[in-house]
């Protein structure tokens, strides 16, 4: 390399090499086939879906040269030793070890699957970070689900203060992660950073095994596992042939082949988040047997963990219904000697967490909507033992603490990673009960196009709480139950929160700025300011 190139640090060059290599390998494959397989996000250009790597190479000053490998893909020399050098700011920090998983790769099975005990060992190695977690739960996974525009870094760090011991990233679109620098930056600038954000599993969506592989290779040294999304029921997932629809693509052959391809090639466990296959029309019942058959094929192919959302893709919003824990137990019993299984669905407090673990025998529980509204869900709060009173900090403090974390890890424009649209959605969920009464506050949250505006909206809630002498111990879930009351017979909030008195509060005017733009994927619109038609609005109760 010339003298000008030598001015770049080896750390920066080597760190960028992972991404350059991934893009380069992706190009080799794309030149052979111009089938735009994730059409919901990208389309072929005149070069045949080939990503221009020139700009990346000029920026990093790395010479990418072809070399042969034992795999059926090619890797550049620059990427060959990347794991022995410091990554750039777009990956993980130097102070974080490459992996926090105590399992040795030499213990892996022939198909690439990790030993049955890998999750338990991972959790125990981090148990010192959760001194309030009961002894009998220290080897159980208490998980924040992968949620579009929701499980961002500041939010994950907030939940980890309250016994969450495993987090997933938001669902990451594999092809966009490789192709779009802006999209990638929103997800990966801080992931794996700081070290408190571990253990962490990165979830990707897509149906092209090589595209998924290239995306996962970028992150594998800085997470504790990677996950394939087979749960999203949204129409955009149907169009892109991922999520819950991937379970049905080619009779399940596609996702099985993806796992078979990824498991032996990646350094971390490959897991899959799934639903129950819906009725085929011949019967009103979900296809339980077909689902079990698919799960067996996935485990045989090398999956190291399954998360079972005990509903079909048709069960969402007002048609959600209770998660089928009995079926989840059947899955747990089937694979109890082979892999850990997580249960997802029908969790709103620790009483339900413990009941789910007892009834299903699962290795942990994954929670989505309820913990979005109240991050301390995995604490003994709003449970029978406390007479359903809230014993942890109230919703206002959740909003304030979240905004402080957002200032520490500033949002990019857009809603996919931790953008202002994501922040607005979090404030809407945290403060849902207040926004129902005080529409002026709701309007202020909707117009929070800057951190100053978001701060002012939360300050308005503080003024209201002070005026009405609000009692946080009486708080109950509000946003979470907006649909659950429709489908769960006899459901009621224990020790219901009094309807707050409506009081006048002055709104501080802030400079209005143009809204941030989404960079693909799910987003927001004037008629849907909090993104509820996308995001987590998929029945993950």
UniProtKB/TrEMBL annotation:
One of its GO terms (molecular function) is tRNA dihydrouridine synthase activity. Belongs to the Dus family. Dus1 subfamily. Residues 60-74 have a biased composition (Basic and acidic residues). This is tRNA-dihydrouridine(16/17) synthase [NAD(P)(+)]. Keywords: Flavoprotein, FMN, NAD, NADP, Oxidoreductase, tRNA processing. Residues 60-111, 511-541 are annotated as: Disordered. InterPro entries: Aldolase_TIM, DUS-like_FMN-bd, tRNA_hU_synthase_CS. It comes from the Eukaryota. Its cofactor is FMN. Residues 82-106 have a biased composition (Polar residues). Residues 144-459 form the DUS-like FMN-binding domain.
């Amino acid at each position: 390399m010339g003298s000008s190139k030598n001015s770049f640090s080896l750390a920066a060059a080597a760190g960028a090499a992972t991404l350059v290599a991934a893009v380069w390998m992706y190009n080799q494959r794309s030149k052979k086939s111009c089938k735009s397989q994730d059409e919901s996000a990208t389309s072929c250009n005149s070069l045949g879906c080939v990503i221009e790597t020139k700009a990346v190479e000029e920026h990093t000053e790395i010479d990418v040269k072809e070399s042969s490998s034992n795999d059926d893909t090619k890797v550049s020399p620059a990427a060959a030793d990347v794991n022995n050098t410091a990554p750039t700011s777009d990956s993980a920090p130097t102070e974080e070890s490459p992996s926090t998983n105590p399992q040795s790769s030499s213990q892996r099975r022939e198909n690439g699957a990790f030993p049955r005990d890998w999750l338990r060992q991972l959790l125990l190695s981090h148990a010192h970070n959760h001194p309030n977690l009961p002894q009998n739960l220290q080897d159980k996974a208490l998980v924040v689900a992968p949620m579009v525009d929701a499980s961002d870094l500041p939010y994950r760090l907030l939940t980890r203060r309250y016994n969450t011991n495993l987090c997933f990233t938001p669902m990451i679109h594999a092809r966009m992660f490789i192709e779009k620098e802006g999209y990638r930056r929103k997800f990966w600038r801080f992931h794996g950073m700081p070290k408190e954000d571990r253990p962490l599993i990165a979830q990707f969506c897509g149906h092209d095994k090589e595209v998924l592989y290239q995306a996962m290779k970028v992150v594998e040294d800085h997470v504790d596992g990677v996950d394939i999304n087979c749960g999203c029921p949204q129409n955009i997932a149907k169009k892109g042939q991922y999520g819950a629809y991937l379970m049905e693509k080619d009779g399940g052959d596609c996702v099985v082949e993806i796992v078979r391809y990824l498991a032996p090639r990646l350094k971390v466990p490959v897991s899959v988040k799934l639903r129950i296959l819906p009725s085929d029309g011949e019967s009103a019942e979900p296809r339980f047997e077909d689902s079990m058959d698919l799960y067996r094929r996935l485990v045989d192919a090398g999956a190291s963990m399954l998360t079972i959302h005990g509903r079909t893709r048709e069960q969402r919003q007002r048609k959600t219904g209770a998660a089928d824990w009995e079926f989840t137990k059947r899955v747990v019993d089937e694979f109890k000697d082979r892999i850990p299984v997580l249960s997802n669905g029908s969790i709103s407090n620790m009483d339900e967490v413990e009941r789910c673990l007892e009834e299903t025998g699962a290795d942990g529980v994954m929670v989505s909507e309820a913990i979005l509204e109240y991050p301390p869900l995995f604490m003994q709060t709003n449970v029978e033992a406390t007479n359903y009173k809230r014993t942890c900090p109230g919703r206002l403090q959740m909003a304030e603490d979240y905004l402080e974390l957002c200032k520490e890890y500033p949002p990019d424009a857009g809603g996919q990673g931790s953008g202002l649209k994501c922040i607005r959605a979090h404030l809407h969920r945290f403060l849902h009960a207040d926004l129902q009464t005080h529409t002026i506050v709701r309007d202020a949250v909707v117009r929070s196009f800057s951190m100053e505006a978001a701060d002012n909206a939360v300050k308005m809630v503080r003024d209201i709480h002070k005026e009405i002498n609000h009692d946080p111990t009486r708080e109950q879930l509000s946003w979470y139950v907006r649909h659950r009351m429709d489908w769960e017979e006899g459901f009621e909030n224990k020790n219901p929160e009094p309807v707050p008195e409506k009081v006048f509060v002055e709104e501080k005017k802030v400079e209005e700025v143009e809204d941030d733009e989404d960079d693909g994927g799910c987003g927001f619109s004037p008629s849907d300011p909090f993104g509820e038609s996308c995001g987590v609005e998929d029945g993950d109760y």
